[in-house]
From TrEMBL, chain A:
The gene is pheS. One of its GO terms (molecular function) is tRNA binding. It comes from Candidatus Magasanikbacteria bacterium RIFCSPHIGHO2_02_FULL_41_13. This is Phenylalanine--tRNA ligase alpha subunit. GO terms for cellular component: cytoplasm. Its cofactor is Mg(2+).
Automatic annotation (TrEMBL), chain B:
NCBIfam families: pheT_bact. One of its GO terms (molecular function) is magnesium ion binding. Coiled coil: none annotated. Belongs to the phenylalanyl-tRNA synthetase beta subunit family. Type 1 subfamily. Its main location: cytoplasm. This is Phenylalanine--tRNA ligase beta subunit. Binds 2 magnesium ions per tetramer. Keywords: Aminoacyl-tRNA synthetase, ATP-binding, Cytoplasm, Ligase, Magnesium, Metal-binding, Nucleotide-binding, Protein biosynthesis, RNA-binding, tRNA-binding. InterPro entries: aa-tRNA-synth_II/BPL/LPL (IPR045864), B3/B4_tRNA-bd (IPR005146), DNA-bd_dom_put_sf (IPR009061), Fdx_antiC-bd (IPR005121), Fdx_antiC-bd_sf (IPR036690), NA-bd_OB-fold (IPR012340), Phe-tRNA-ligase_IIc_bsu (IPR045060), Phe-tRNA-ligase_IIc_bsu_bact (IPR004532). It comes from Candidatus Magasanikbacteria bacterium RIFCSPHIGHO2_02_FULL_41_13. The lineage of its organism: Bacteria, Candidatus Magasanikiibacteriota. It is found in: Cytoplasm. It catalyses: tRNA(Phe) + L-phenylalanine + ATP = L-phenylalanyl-tRNA(Phe) + AMP + diphosphate + H(+).
Length: 343, 817
């Protein structure tokens, strides 16, 4: 028996070595382990003719050998599989640069919305409320409450859309129109932004739109300073255009702030060296603001002796145009999918 | 406004090494916006004075001449088409290498040697606009070259040197000067520059006027509100001629064309002090009586630009007893001005009320250097300085002239000094930094403020008259004066300190953002923005009644005067304009609609007046080539969005009466969106005949949802169901039904048959001739599950039979086998 087993093993090992494909391996398996006529099966059958003690011993040997050979068989299988996989580079190669040919779809937000939400997230993270007020606004909240008396040049017909039959209604010219509403609604301390749609009666061209977006900011508290406003401007510049973006402020008159400033960003396109976008100045105008005028605080029911604050009004379209290099502001409202689907 | 650097240097020492660019930058950062600087000599390299030595006909061209020109070191040949060429004439020669504007137009070009019709030319004899000197040398005809024969300079002298063009102009944005009446003259600007650069600022005060007695001059001011101060004086012995070169140069540097000595003097004083002045021909003022009065209603008046205006009674006039002489503070009349025969004059230096000047000049469309200044609220003190300066200059320039009358000064209400009480603590608290107190005082004093220091840093600040008219009135204004000179760049950047309370949320804005992001990022829709304004023609095509629309009083786009009541009309326009480029259009917009009949926010806190309601809506449109029922695509998108919002929505057939309001909806494909019993929106397909009218060949679905109403509904909590350990049993059924049987009702009925039914899912719908008219076939997967045990076939059969019974009894369904 022992001898027979050894022969069988030798026989199996020498044959398995020659094998190079799955078919031959299957044949080999059949030859040795087939239930009907396999060499092993034959040996197993022979067991029943042995005496009890011998049979037990031989059975053990036989099983050990079977496990060993089956293990060899498995091993060979993996070997063949590996060999065939090695050829995948050729047999299953595809052109990885070719696009998917089935249907694909993507949705898009208006680029102005994208910038708006980026800023909303920044301000929300600093504890600002995000709010909005009427777009069709009363003359009072759009002008008078903001220290713009009735004969002020800012109220000229050529700048403001009025509503027929309602002489005290306007399409708001600025999101600042919500300042006094916010003070009345929420009181102090106050920290909010008002992103929204504004209107000016202007002829449209690549730089001008009669419908545009602003983001008003308003902070009022006991010790809110000009330096705080500068810090917030810096945070916005860093957030939108990268840390290290410089800002500079200069005087500018707005009736509802004092002092009033316009803020400029160092041009992130040329790093301040001068280019077409910044008209070779190295700076981009983007951030107007100032300390809230005491008359405005009074209108909002806030004591200017006790509280002070700052306000700003970023042009969202402008920030978005700078960010994406959009040269024509009219595209935002064009409804042209060729434009909208780029964002 | 243009500022001359040389002129500034009269009042403040500025080293020549300080470039105009640098000066412009500092002014921009601290005072006013400088738009640019212009060096007069910059563009005149290789341009010289030359003299024509000979002129010959061009052999091949009638209009050209061949000139030999003395250019100083050499004689050069120039081919020229000038209309006024003469031998011996001194001309402007652009040599090879010079930069000129060809015929005064287009981009600058660099001169090269040229061959014109076969004759060589080594440069160009220039017209004034070709070298940017049109203001100095106006042309009588297109081909007139500049005649410099009057100059003593030799041929070869650089043009800039010959014309003394050595100044630099600084262009200031007028808008940024709107609150600074004091900066509309060089003296004010020089004070500002002196403060910025810590330099000495010196202005000579013009001498008092020695009154004459030759002429009587009387002035009556009828409206002292519109004319708080009026000063005048007469001079005789006037000889009108050109003003001296130095004065002309100053005016030209500031962009003002010299006219004659008297007019130039008034302009010079205006540019120096910022006070507009006027000169009348004294002989044209009847009895030398000036009356400052309002215009007569519908009075006609011809200004010196020869334009006739119709006036109203709120406009202020300068008149005599017989006629109007000038539109006060704006422009003189055609017949009262100075001409070459004038021998005696009356100078006017007055202060007019700013608002009235602005209104009049806006209404008449007549903006002048004078009105631009008066509408900024000028300092009445300057009226006196200006009159003295006018007289000083006239006596100096106009030999033989003399003061001929006493000085008239009508100034009934002198304003008191404006005093502001504040403190260093206040200034520091506003700015957010500690200040060098000495420096603060120095800055304010240089700007003309008088400071009185009190206890504990208290400050009593007297505002100079030239800043007191409008500009400076409260302590916050002082903050600005200090901070802008110290420099905003020297203010630290800090962040406001607040408690960390989470901010209140605006539920509509939160919902709007969530929906926008779902639609764009999950449902693959593209967000568009449309104007809030609509075109009546478009609405008409849609059949929309616009009687409830609000309308703009002054629309810019004349074709879009209506204020929208729905997002849909403009969205349909978007589809129309994109259809020729895209097979599939999936767009949405969120925005306000304006409804006059519904109450919105208050007009004012203490006023009962209400604005129209302005809810935020979501609008959606969908169209795809060959898609015959886009309704279902859109209803799926809406259902998906609501599922993400965890709000249960029902899409139910719209009631018939709502068709009238929206005639462009498809009457058979029109639904309401209902949440917890409230209608929050609607959706439909476009009526095929409307589509045809609009030129839209595809089927188009649209929908809109009121986000304000939707945001009132509490979002449902998501709850988890334990995973079943027992298998589901799915049975499919196909049934034939009347077409009017609704899926939603059928599902509801089946779901209530037995709790073992966990889902009823439609997977096929078929309509066709074979089924018969008004019939449809629907196929469902019905899923049975018991969470406690494995279902047996018998149990499922039992329930399934009930399902079939319900279908047959309640829906008259025919079960297909």
């Amino acid at each position: 028996m022992q001898k027979e087993l050894e022969n069988l093993k030798k026989n199996f090992e020498s044959q398995i070595k020659q094998i190079t494909n799955f078919l031959a391996l299957e044949d080999l398996e059949q030859k040795f382990f087939s239930r009907k006529s396999g060499a092993f099966t034959e040996l197993m059958k022979g067991l029943k003719d042995l005496a009890d003690d011998k049979r037990k011993e031989a059975g053990l040997l036989l099983n050990t050998l079977k496990a060993e050979l089956e293990n060899n068989l498995q091993h060979k299988k993996s070997e063949l599989e590996m060999a065939s996989m090695g050829d995948l580079a050729r047999s299953e190669s595809i052109d990885v640069t070719q696009p998917y040919l089935g249907e694909t779809a993507k949705g898009h937000l208006n680029p102005n919305t994208i910038i708006q939400y980026q800023l909303e997230d920044l301000f929300a993270s600093m504890g600002f409320m995000v709010w909005d007020g009427p777009e069709l606004e009363s003359d009072y909240y759009n002008f008078t409450a903001l220290n713009i008396p009735p004969d002020h040049p800012a109220r000229d017909m050529q700048d403001t859309f009025y509503v027929k039959g309602h002489s005290d209604w306007v399409m708001r010219t600025q999101t600042s129109s919500f300042q006094v509403r916010a003070m009345q609604k929420f009181g102090v301390p106050l920290k909010l932004i008002v992103p929204g749609r504004c209107f000016r009666n202007e002829s449209t061209d690549p730089r001008h739109e009669h419908t545009f977006y602003q983001m008003e900011g308003l902070v009022v508290g006991e010790k809110i300073t000009f330096a705080d406003m500068k810090g917030v401007f810096q945070a916005v510049a860093d957030h939108l255009y990268g840390v290290g973006t410089k800002i500079r402020l200069m005087p500018k008159l707005y009736p509802f702030v004092e002092p009033g400033v316009r803020g400029e960003l160092s041009c992130f396109i040329c790093q301040g060296k001068g280019c077409r976008v910044c008209k070779n100045s190295g700076w981009l105008e983007a951030m107007p603001g100032g300390m809230v005028h005491p008359n405005v605080l009074r209108e909002g029911g806030i004591d200017p002796e006790k509280y002070q604050g700052f306000a700003f009004g970023f042009g969202l379209n402008r920030l978005s145009m700078l960010k994406y290099g959009i040269e024509d502001i009219r595209l935002f409202q064009s409804g042209d999918l060729r434009f909208l689907q780029q964002f | 406004m243009k500022i001359s650097k040389k002129w500034l240097q009269e009042f403040v020492f500025l080293p020549d090494s300080l470039s105009a660019e640098e000066l412009g930058k500092e002014l921009t950062l601290r005072t006013v916006e400088v738009e640019g600087v212009e060096d007069q000599a910059k563009n005149l390299n290789h341009i010289i004075v030359a003299q024509i030595k000979s002129i010959e006909k061009h052999p091949n061209a009638d209009k050209l001449r061949v000139c030999q020109v003395d250019a100083g070191v050499e004689i050069v040949q120039i081919v020229c088409g000038g209309s006024n060429l003469e031998v011996g004439m001194k001309v402007v020669l652009a040599k090879i290498g010079a930069t000129v504007l060809w015929h005064g137009q287009g981009d600058p070009i660099i001169m090269e040697k040229a061959t014109l019709r076969g004759v060589d030319s080594y440069g160009m004899i220039c017209t004034s606009d070709e070298v940017g000197l049109l203001a100095m040398f106006p042309k009588k005809d297109d081909h007139e070259v500049v005649d410099l024969t009057h100059l003593k300079d030799k041929a070869g002298t650089p043009l800039a040197k010959a014309l003394h063009l050595d100044d630099v102009s600084i262009e200031v944005d007028n808008k940024s000067l709107s609150n600074r009446p004091d900066l509309w003259g060089h003296i004010g600007m020089a004070r500002e520059v002196a403060t910025i650069y810590h330099k000495k600022f010196t202005v000579a005060t013009p001498p008092e006027i020695k009154a004459g007695s030759e002429m009587k001059l009387s002035v009556t001011v009828e409206d002292a509100t519109l004319c708080p101060r009026y000063m005048a004086v007469a001079l005789s012995g006037i000889h009108v001629e050109a003003s001296p070169g130095w004065m002309q140069k100053r005016l030209e540097a500031c962009g003002i064309r010299p006219i004659n000595n008297i007019v130039d003097i008034t302009n010079y004083v205006m540019l120096e002090i910022g006070q507009p002045c006027h000169a009348f021909d004294a002989s044209k003022i009847a009895e030398q009586k000036i009356i400052v009065r309002r215009a007569k209603e519908a009075e006609k008046f011809v200004t010196l630009d020869q334009k006739e205006h119709t006036l109203t009674s709120d406009m202020l006039m300068i008149a005599d007893g017989e006629k109007s002489l000038a539109l006060a503070g704006i422009m003189g009349g055609l017949h009262s001005g100075i001409n070459e025969n004038t021998t005696s004059i009356v100078f006017e230096s007055a202060t007019f009320e700013a608002g009235s000047i602005r209104k009049t000049s806006t209404r008449l469309g007549l903006r002048t250097d004078s009105s631009a200044r008066f509408e900024k609220s000028l300092d009445p003190v300057n009226a006196l300085l200006a009159l003295r300066r006018l007289v000083e200059l006239t006596l100096q320039i106009c030999k033989g002239s003399a003061v001929a009358s006493p000085v008239v000064d009508l100034y009934p209400k002198k304003p008191g000094a404006k005093i502001i009480a504040t403190s260093f603590e206040f200034l520091e608290g506003k700015i957010g930094m500690s200040l060098d107190h000495k420096k603060v005082v120095d800055i304010l004093e240089r700007l003309g403020f008088t400071i009185e220091k009190g206890k504990k840093g208290a400050l009593k600040i007297t505002v100079p008259s030239w800043r007191a008219t409008k500009d400076i009135s409260i302590a916050e204004d002082i903050v600005e004066e200090v901070i802008r000179i110290i420099g905003y760049e020297n203010v630290p950047s800090t962040l406001p300190v607040f408690s960390i309370t989470p901010p209140r949320q605006n539920s509509v804005k939160v919902l709007e953002r969530k929906i926008k992001e779902l639609l764009a990022l999950e449902s693959c829709f593209t967000e568009t923005y449309n104007y809030s304004f609509e075109s009546p023609e478009w609405l008409q095509k849609l059949g929309v009644d616009s009687s409830l629309h609000l309308e703009l009083e002054n629309p810019i786009a004349k074709d879009r005067p209506l204020i929208r009541r729905s997002l849909i009309p403009n969205l349909i326009e978007n589809v129309e304009s994109n259809l020729h480029r895209f097979d599939e259009i999936k767009m949405f917009e969120t925005g306000r609609v304006y409804k006059i009949e519904e109450a919105g926010e208050r007009v004012e806190a203490k006023d009962d007046g209400l604005l129209p309601r302005q809810d935020t809506y979501l609008g959606l449109v969908y169209a795809k080539k060959s898609e015959t029922t886009p309704f279902f695509v859109l209803s799926k998108v809406i259902a998906d969005v609501f599922a993400r919002l965890h709000v249960a929505v029902e899409i139910i057939p719209a009631e018939n009466e709502s068709f009238a309001a929206t005639p462009f909806v498809h009457p058979g494909r029109f639904a309401f969106l209902k949440v917890a019993g409230t209608i929050v929106g609607r959706m439909s397909e476009l009526h095929p005949s409307t589509a045809k009218n609009l030129g839209i060949s595809q089927r188009l679905a649209f929908g809109e949802i009121n986000l304000n109403i939707l945001s009132d509904h509490q979002l449902e909590e998501v709850s988890y169901s334990p995973l079943s350990v027992y298998p589901d049993v799915v049975r499919d059924i196909a049934i034939v039904l009347e077409k009017n049987v609704m899926h939603a009702n059928l599902v509801a009925a089946l779901r209530s048959v037995d709790p073992l039914i966990v889902s009823v899912e439609l997977f096929d719908v078929y309509e066709g001739e074979r089924l018969g008219e008004n019939k449809k076939s629907m196929a469902y997967h019905i899923t049975y599950r018991d969470t406690q045990k494995t279902l047996t076939t018998a149990e499922v059969d039992d329930v399934h039979k009930k399902v079939l019974d319900t279908l047959q009894k309640n829906f008259a369904a025919e079960i297909r086998k």
